[in-house]
Structure formats: C-alpha cells, structure tokens
Amino acid sequence: MYQLAGIPDVDKLNLIQEEKEFVSKLFKDSCAYLKEIIGNVIGFYEYNRIPYNKLKHGLSILSGLKPVESKD
User: Fold this and answer.
1) Alpha-carbon distance 53 to 23, whole Å?
2) Are 6 and 31 within 8 A, CB to CB?
3) pLDDT tens by residue, the chain, 72 residues
C-alpha cells in the first residue's frame, strides 16, 4: 500500500527520532484510510456491476421509448 500511495520510507528521510515516529504514524493512518476507501470503491463496483453491465450491454431496447417515425 505504501508503494501504491507513493509514500517514502521513513528511514530514508532526514528526520529526528520524534519526527520519524510522528510521520510513521501519519503514513500508517493514511494507508489505513486509503485501504478503507479502496474497499468502499470495490464494494460499490461489485454491488452495481450487474445493473451496469445490463445497462451498457444488454438493454439495447429501453422500455418506454418509442422509435422516431419519419414524416415522409
């Protein structure tokens, strides 16, 4: 998750120990939040996948719509 979010390695940053601890906790909390958000997006996609696919690929004729008649 750290690599996906582009979060650097705390040990490679030029920080004092107190700053490292703070930044490390911040990065950990940020990754946990990002993981939760990605889980929500995946859940939304899975919940709506069947209606989306039917709308895009299976419903070429929508109920309630009438073909336009030519006025020749």
Assistant:
1) 43
2) no
3) 777 778 888 888 888 899 999 989 998 999 899 999 999 999 998 888 888 777 776 655 556 666 667 675
**What is the Cα–Cα distance from 72 to 68, expressed in whole angstroms?**
12
CA dihedral 24, 30, 33, 35 (to 10 degrees): -80
Domain definitions of the chain by residue range: 2-58
DSSP assignment of 33-59, as one string?
HHHHHHHHHHHHHHHHHHHHHIIIII-
Which residue has tokens 């009438």?
66
Sorted by sequence, the CB contacts under 8 Å of residue 7 that are 6+ apart come out as 27, 30, 31
